Structure to design on (794 residues):
């Protein structure tokens, strides 16, 4: 792999790019990705590996030496908005993405991140206010010499990884209807999958597969609608072992509400090559006012397992039927083989916004474990695990904390978790060494008052007011926890002043990394959670930590740049509406710790 | 290592100082029976009510807070609608966010008509250093049907007449409000 360096290569690259791409595509089919992902030196996909474990086989950095970690080099993206996701690393090149305007940089790892090329699309800034909660982007996908980026304005673009030149682009959605692109694409074989954002604008969610060769649409699977639109087989597609039956979605809505029914799909996707299934979750139903959408609102809030080639759903599981809290089901699905009841099971583990962690058999969709991963969770007493029960697999809802039961214009108080969930998009990690999941969590409760709203295409479609604050008697708004998904048990929990909004990274070296909203990169012992190292980066971290190897040396990197939902909710600090008159202050305000600005910080051990 | 007790103490001390200063300032204002604070629309003192909808001496919508803290209905309704329609960018209680400005500050400069125009037509501040875009809400019933309520709520925040969070007590919903709401929302 030759790097582009200097003007000659850039010019030559432009001339040669089309031929090069054809030959690269043939010589290097994207099947290679399955092999490439096993090389821990690289970061070839946003989830590190297809199983989304966010685990690296690198082991130079250990609990013994991580305290000596120091900054190797830094890079400013020049963008102020919230920086989610993480760069990719392929050979000698690192690919860094940024929020709107969705700049992409190729950086030369042989020269401390010298810029090889820069891509900056021209996008209509009118897309900005249609993006709920900041103009974030969660990153790039790579395959066969191309990079794939889903821009804010829903342009899916394929870039030549050598030159940054656009190979093809396709429009996936319509921002005028509130559809936007924030999620990272995923590539399997010859297809690139993207989802859509806009749950707060009454979009109808979908996942779409495009050809990596030319951007041609291959299939689109909607979150709501007819069986044909859903890409389900009423007999063969199952939920908890039973066929879902005909018109499963349409029957669960009143009238045409499903057409603006939400179920956005902007989370992280994963893939099991053996089963040839892709996994993802769908988001909240629209509006946030449950009274305006009676029924289970299928298939919002659902885990989908779909055939990677055809898109047909193998199984589904709706975690929060008829959502009343905005507990989006988009969080990542982590695939790990675990021993449960004395046998090895191909599991899928999912930490939902609703505060429950689910362990399922990812081949069959059988529900194995469902347990609270934050003791504060109070809207449910748990999931009905009795297979013979009418309500098998459904959460037992506590009426007092169900805004839909109270009705419109009534303020339901003290609901835990808040709408941002016990965890949001920030992905957890799993170490096959310790057999533990490392989960960045939010520890925040809310008051929720639903009311009537009218729908206008492209305008926010929310219909609820909410106030957020830490659980009663506590001041920490987050925890970084270790979770045993076979038992549904917290093994240790490190309190954090703010929600932990950064993706975790587990390593073979026995160190787990994550970032904090104040801006600290932290390293903890994978076994005990003991903090071993911290460094304050220039801004709050909502990006995901990665680790890679270059010229035989292990590096750790993270994007900082405060923003996103966290920056909106926590900037000025939370106040407790129930603290009573005369209560002093409120909780810690992010504004007192950090300010805007996107920076990549790369760490390594000294010497070498 | 985990907590930052020193920092927090300082922060709370500052808050306490400001709170005390605010109480003193308010006391001075009341004793001279003149509202020293003016916002972008001038003196916010409520002089007249038309079925629970208060206006100032210039006829501009304004808030009315009773001595026991009870707010008028429009201020309360404004809190609810602000939190649904504006919070997502401007942060809770008009305090701003990492994404959009603090409207309780902006309202110290903006007049009622300035406010109305920005909400209805939107605003763009796109440059090399920032991309701030406010959408036009002229067609958005969830905003425009409640624009006076949202204005009155933010005006009360700009003048520190209403604190953070949900106002604890509010006047009952006037019949005129329900009627106007039904007509506007359709």
């Amino acid at each position: 792999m030759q790097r582009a360096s200097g003007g000659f290569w850039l010019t030559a690259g432009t001339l040669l790019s089309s031929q090069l791409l054809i030959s690269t595509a043939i010589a290097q089919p994207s099947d290679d990705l399955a092999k490439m992902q096993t090389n821990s030196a690289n970061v070839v996909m946003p989830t590190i590996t297809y199983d989304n474990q966010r685990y690296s086989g690198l082991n130079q950095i250990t609990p013994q030496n991580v305290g000596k970690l120091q900054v190797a080099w830094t890079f400013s993206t020049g963008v102020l908005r919230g920086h989610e996701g993480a760069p990719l690393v392929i050979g000698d090149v690192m690919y860094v993405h940024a929020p709107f305007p969705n700049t992409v940089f190729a950086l030369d790892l042989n020269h401390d991140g010298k810029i090889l090329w820069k891509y900056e699309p021209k996008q209509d800034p009118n897309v900005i206010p249609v993006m709920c909660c900041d103009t974030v982007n969660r990153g790039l996908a790579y395959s066969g010499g191309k990079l794939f980026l889903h821009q804010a304005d829903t342009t899916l673009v394929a870039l030549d990884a050598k030159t940054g030149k656009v190979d093809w682009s396709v429009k996936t959605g319509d921002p005028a209807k509130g559809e936007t692109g924030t999620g990272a694409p995923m590539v399997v074989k010859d297809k690139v999958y993207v989802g859509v954002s806009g749950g707060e604008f009454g979009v109808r969610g979908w996942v779409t597969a495009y050809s990596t060769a030319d951007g041609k649409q291959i299939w689109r699977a909607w979150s709501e609608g007819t069986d044909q639109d859903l890409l389900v087989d009423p007999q063969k597609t199952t939920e908890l072992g039973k066929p879902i039956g005909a018109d499963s979605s349409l029957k669960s809505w009143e009238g045409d509400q499903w057409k603006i029914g939400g179920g956005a799909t902007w989370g992280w996707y994963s893939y099991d090559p053996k089963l040839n299934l892709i996994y993802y979750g769908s988001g909240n139903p629209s509006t946030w006012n449950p009274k305006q959408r009676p029924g289970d609102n299928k298939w919002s809030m659902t885990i989908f397992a779909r055939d990677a080639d055809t898109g047909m759903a193998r199984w589904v599981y709706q975690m929060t039927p008829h959502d009343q809290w905005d507990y989006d089901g988009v969080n990542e699905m982590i695939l790990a083989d675990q021993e449960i009841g004395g046998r090895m099971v191909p599991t899928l583990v999912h930490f939902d916004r609703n505060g429950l962690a689910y362990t399922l058999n990812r081949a069959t969709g059988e529900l194995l474990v469902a347990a609270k991963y934050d003791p504060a969770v109070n809207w449910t007493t748990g999931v009905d695990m009795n297979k013979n029960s009418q309500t098998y697999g459904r959460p037992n809802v506590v009426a007092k904390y169900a805004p839909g039961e109270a009705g419109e214009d009534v303020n339901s108080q003290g609901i835990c978790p808040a709408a941002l969930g016990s965890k949001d998009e920030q992905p957890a990690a799993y170490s096959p060494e310790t057999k533990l999941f490392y989960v960045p969590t939010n520890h925040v409760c809310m008051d929720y008052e639903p009311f009537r709203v009218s729908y206008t295409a492209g305008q926010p479609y929310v219909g609820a007011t909410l106030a957020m604050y830490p659980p009663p008697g506590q001041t920490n708004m987050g925890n970084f926890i270790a979770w045993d998904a076979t038992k549904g048990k917290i093994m240790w929990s490190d309190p954090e002043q703010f929600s932990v909004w950064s993706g975790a990274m587990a390593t073979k070296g026995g160190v787990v990394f994550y970032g904090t909203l104040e801006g600290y990169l932290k390293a903890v012992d994978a076994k005990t959670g003991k903090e071993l190292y911290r460094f304050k980066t220039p801004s709050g971290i909502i990006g995901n930590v990665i680790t890679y190897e270059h010229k035989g040396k292990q590096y750790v990197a993270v994007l900082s740049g405060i923003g996103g939902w966290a920056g909106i909710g926590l900037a000025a600090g939370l106040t407790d509406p129930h603290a009573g008159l005369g209560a002093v202050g409120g909780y810690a305000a992010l504004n007192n710790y950090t300010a805007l600005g996107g920076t990549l910080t790369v760490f390594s051990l000294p010497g070498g | 290592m985990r907590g930052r007790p020193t920092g927090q103490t300082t922060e709370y001390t500052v808050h306490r100082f400001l709170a005390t200063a605010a109480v003193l300032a308010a006391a001075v204002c009341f004793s001279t029976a003149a509202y020293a604070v003016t916002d972008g629309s001038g003196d916010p003192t409520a002089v007249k009510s038309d079925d629970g909808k208060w206006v100032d001496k210039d006829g501009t919508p304004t808030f009315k807070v009773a001595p026991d803290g009870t707010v008028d209905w429009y201020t309360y309704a404004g809190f609810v609608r602000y939190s649904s329609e504006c919070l997502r960018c401007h942060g809770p209680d008009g305090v701003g966010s990492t994404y959009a400005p603090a409207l309780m500050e902006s309202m110290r400069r903006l007049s009622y008509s300035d406010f109305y125009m920005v909400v209805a037509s939107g605003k763009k501040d796109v440059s090399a250093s920032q991309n701030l875009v406010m959408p036009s809400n002229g067609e958005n019933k969830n905003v425009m049907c409640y624009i006076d309520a949202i204005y009155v709520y933010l005006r009360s925040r700009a003048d520190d007449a209403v604190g953070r969070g949900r106002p604890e007590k509010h006047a009952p919903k006037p019949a005129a409000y329900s009627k106007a709401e039904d007509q506007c929302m359709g």
About this structure: The radius of gyration of chain B is 18 Å. Chain B touches chain A through 51 residues (CB under 8 Å). The helical segments of chain B are 5-31, 73-85, 87-90, 103-106, 112-121, 141-144, 147-158, 175-185. The CA atoms of residues 4 and 10 of chain B lie 10 Å apart.
